Structure formats: C-alpha cells, structure tokens
Amino acid sequence: MALSRSRRHRSMDFWPGFVDALSTLLLTIMFLLTVFVLGQFLLSREISGKDVVLNQLHSQINELTRLLALERSNDQDTEDQINDLRASLEQAQQDKSRLRQLLDQGSGASASAKARITDLKGSLSDQQQVSQRALSQVDLLNQQISALRSQISALEDALDVSEKKQDASKAKIADLGKRLNVALARRVQELNRYRSDFFGRLREILADRQNIRVVGDRFVFQSEVLFGSGASDISDRGKTELAKLADVLKKITGEIPSDINWILEVDGFTDDVPVSASSQYANNWELSTARATAVVEYLISQGVQPNRLAAAGFGEYQPIAEGDTKEARAQNRRIEIKLTDR
C-alpha cells in the first residue's frame, strides 16, 4: 500500500511539471513577439527618418536639374544669337570687301559710296561689341553650369553616405534584436528555474496537507486553513503554515539574482454567499481583498521583502467549482499564491 501511494504521488507531480513547461513556452513566445514588434517599430522609425532625408535630397536634385535645363536653353539661345551675329559679320566683311574693290577701281568714288563705307564700319563695330557681350554671357553660363554640376555631385555623394548610414542602422537594429532576444530568453529560463525550485520545496513541505493543493503553477490554501468564517484575521494554524512558506521564500530570495524582476502574487477569493449584515465588510470584494492583504502583511512580518509581494481580491467572481453545494463553495473560498514576473 505504501508503494501504491508513492506511485500515485509521483503521477500527481507529473502534471504540475507539464503545466510549468507549457507556461514557460507561452512566456517565451510572448517575449519573442514583443521583441519582434519592438524591433519592427524601431526599424520603421529609423527607415521613416531616412526616407524623409532621401526625399529632400531628391527634391533638391530635381530642382537643380530643372535649373540646369533652363540654363542649357538660355545657352542655346545665346549660341543662336552668336551665330546670327557671325552671319551679320560675314555679310559686313563681304560688303567691306566689295567697297574696297570699288575704291581700288578708281579714286573718283562718289561721296555716297564713302558714306556707305562709314556706315558699314560703324555697323561692324556695333556687331563686334554685341558679339563680345554674347561671348561674355556664354562664359558666365558655362561657369554657372560647372557650379551646378559640382552641387549635383556633392548631393550624390551625400546620398551615398546617407544610404550607407541607413544600411549600418539596419544592421545595428538587427543585432540589438538578437541580443535582446538572448537576454530575455535567459531571464525567462532563470525565473522558471527558480519558480520550479520554489514550488518543489513547497511541495515537500505541504505535500501531506489536504487543505493545501497544487493547481497548475500556484498553491491553493483553503480559507478555512487561514481564516475563520467571514473574518480576515489569520488563525494560529494559518500563521504556522504561512511561516513555513515565508522560510522557503527567504531562502529562494537570496538565490534569485537581483536583476530578475519577480513577485509573489497573493489572490483572495470567496464563495457566492453574501456577507452577513453584522460583518465589518460591505461585500465579498472587500473580504477577499482584506484576506489577501492580511497574508501579505504576515509574510512581511516574517521577513519577506515588501517589494516582492502583491495582493488582490476577486470576490466570488472567479470560482473553480460550479454549483451551490457546500463542497463547491468550500473549494471557491481560497487563497492562491504563485511566483511570477512583474
């Protein structure tokens, strides 16, 4: 019979371990999803900022290209004017040549011919001045075009540098995500290891007590173990049980690294029977909260760090047994304690 009870006990211990493993997997997946969303958010912000810079650079390049096209159009107009002036100059030179031939043919040229020669010389001088001004404008335009080309080249270099910086930022974000994933996974593994150690020690201490059960990843104390009916003062029997729990907590606390953000969550629950009119509490909400707070305060008095404890009351609204039988209501009156991360 002893062997049979031992086997049944090992079989019952198998399921909490299985639930621990399942909760570990779920926590790991949640952390990975959180890191992935964070990495995507940071990457989106980084790329968005780079896109704004790139759009500004492209706008400047388009404006410079438009100015260059305009200057080229003006340059073409100037070249057309120069060609016209050159044609006029050639015509004037031809006229001058003909007049010289007339002068060579005889010294008795008429006064009108001499006047014509004078007019042609004046026109030729004017045309030469216009041509010189046009050449000066062409030189100025060439200088402006060269400056524009230099600016475009500088913008292209800046664009290349910006793209390289963007690639480097993407690489840094990816590396940060990988390191964060590794750190979070390590912290989850460490917390799960200490949680398993914590529950393992409590199982050894509380295994032979019928009113204290292991449900998933938490220990469940029936209210009758800790409190009297409708009261929130811890009984002597309850103090004895909680003192054992406090001893285990203090030992575990010294072993868990300080950078692991863990807490011991204490939750109070009642049945669906309303509190009596003579009770100091208005409803089951207040009673369940007062009981959870009383457990936390007693653990603090036994040396457990206050910043590692949390209390909450849920009244009758989260039962674990359905129905209004005496047995169901007794199961629903309980205090649940679990070790978790903040």
Topology:
Blueprint lengths: L1 H104 L5 H96 L5 E4 L2 E5 H4 L9 H20 L6 E8 L14 H18 L7 E5 L12 H7 L1 E8 L1
Parallel strand pairs: 3-4
Antiparallel strand pairs: 1-2, 2-5, 3-5
Helix pairs in contact: 1-2, 2-4, 4-5
Quick gist of this model?
The protein has helices at residues 2-105, 111-206, 223-226, 236-255, 284-301, 326-332, and strands at residues 212-215, 218-222, 262-269, 309-313, 334-341. With 342 residues, the chain is of the alpha+beta class.
What does this structure look like?
The chain has 342 residues and is an alpha+beta fold. It has two domains: 25-189, Four Helix Bundle (Hemerythrin (Met), subunit A) (Up-down Bundle), CATH 1.20.120; 209-341, 60s Ribosomal Protein L30, Chain: A, CATH 3.30.1330. Helices cover 73% and strands 9% of the residues. The protein has helices at residues 2-105, 111-206, 223-226, 236-255, 284-301, 326-332, and strands spanning 212-215, 218-222, 262-269, 309-313, 334-341. It has a five-stranded mixed β-sheet with strand order 1-2-5-3-4. Helix 1 packs antiparallel against helix 2, helix 2 crosses helix 4 and helix 4 packs across helix 5. The longest helix has 104 residues, at 2-105. The radius of gyration is 47 Å and the shape is rod-shaped. The model has no long low-confidence stretch (mean pLDDT 79). The chain crosses the membrane at residues 21-43. Residues 215-342 form the OmpA-like domain. This is Peptidoglycan-binding protein. Pfam families: OmpA (PF00691). Keywords: Coiled coil, Membrane, Transmembrane, Transmembrane helix.
